[in-house]
Amino acid sequence: MRDIIYWILCAFLTVAIAIVSLRYVTNFWLLSFVYSFQVHLGVVFVAASLVVLAIKRQIYGFILLLASLLLIAHGVIMLREFSEGDGGSDRPPLFRLMSFNIAIDNWKNSTEITDMVIASNADLVNLLEAKPLTFHLQQLFKAYPYHIGCDTGKDTCDTLVLSKRPFVSREVASMGSLRKDRLILATVDFGGETINLVSAHLTKPYFDDFQMAELEDLGKALGSIDGPLVLSGDFNSSAIAPSIQAFLREQKLKTITPEPATWPIGAGALGIAIDHIFARAPLHLTSLKRLDDNLGSNHSGLVADFILDKNGETSPAN
User: Span 125-150, mean pLDDT?
Assistant: First the structure.
């Protein structure tokens, strides 16, 4: 009986490890979200391997344990690939950015979210699914005199970018063919330093291959931008998803690792980061934190500070 249980568990565990390991063979869209949980699943597989070995100590159980540990190790290595380092700096930040998907049905917390945004001391605010803030826009615009989005009523209020500094340029665009106007490209003047600001809200990766098409369009948009750049938004995938990895490498984007977990809310710090703030040199993050309260959203918000490397390229952005 013990042998039967042993081999049944081994079979199930082998299939599970093989599914997660498919990332090394193919970036199949249906499994893309599974790939985001590689480290978490690796921990589960280690626990399952130990159960298998407790039932019967045979070589195959140790092979499964080794494979599970390798999945965890490689997941951690992949996360650190896009790290800015320790993020420490003695220089005061050039600006602060908040990015928050407030959830499109989060009407009952709209007042608290508005108050939080105004009290945040952020120079730039990127709000996604901002429809619940429709009746608080004038209050927000008093605190943030420059904005992009939510100009034509609640039915078109999705992405809202707020700024205390004037925009040098601004554009609302689309990625892919599923949803419109979820890409904002702007430049902001910070006392003579021009920063490229990009907001993006990607489709869930298991919605066919729509996210791949969106990443292709986003890559083209970022590829045409020179100079310091910050990209923030809801990617619906972690940084170790193969498609996101390829995008970050191509665009030379960095963040601070470990990134704060932003989803699912119930998992707290044990969740994964699917909301991101990235920077491209000569712009660098010096801090990246999760907001203390999700205020009814199914995502946690992020706030980040930035410095501009005076030893790098500081010519005005295009």
Answer: 96
Write down the residue that tokens 């249906």 correspond to: 30
Sequence spans of domains, the chain: 2-80, 95-308
Check if the beta carbon of residue 259 is closer than 8 Å to that of residue 86: no
Asked if the 95-308 domain carries CATH number 2.60.40.10, the reply is: no
Assign 3 a pLDDT band (cuts: 50, 70, 90): confident
Local structure of 229: helix, strand or coil: strand
DSSP string, 20-61: HHGGGT---GGGHHHHHTHHHHHHHHHHHHHHHHHH---HHH
136/113 Cα distance (integer angstroms):
10
Give which of 85, 76, 100, 90 is closest to 285, Cα–Cα: 85
pLDDT digits (tens, 9 = 90+) for 36-69: 999 999 999 999 999 999 999 999 999 999 999 9
Q: What is the DSSP letter of 287?
A: E
pTM for the predicted model, two decimal places: 0.92
316 in Cβ contact with 194 (< 8 Å): yes
